[in-house]
Amino acid sequence: MAYSPITDLVGDRVWAGRTDPVQGYNPTTDGAALVLSIRGGDSEYTGHLLTPSVQFQCYAATELEADELYRVVFDRFHKEQNIESGRVMAASKIEQLGQNLEEPSVGWPFVLAFFVITFRNY
User: What is the pTM for the complete model shown?
Assistant: First the structure.
């Protein structure tokens, strides 16, 4: 997911296949981070296109910074279309707009959003 506006904000703090940041992470000292996981999805009848629902959690030291990261993620993944062959991600769109939340155990702000991403499976 090498997309400069996202990596400009999070660096290498992108954790896939997780529902929480890695142990020891702290947004105040480490900076913003993006946590994402597949929460289900579908496949069209041939199996050539997979359409998972992907949960994105945008963490940062402040609610404003978490919103900034979410807006960059939204700009990247909402209404994306890669028609040309050879691209793994074919399309994506917002499924549930971002919601500002707070991590209950530590009080960190984050934005929770869901996108449907269509991947080519061939």
Answer: 0.89
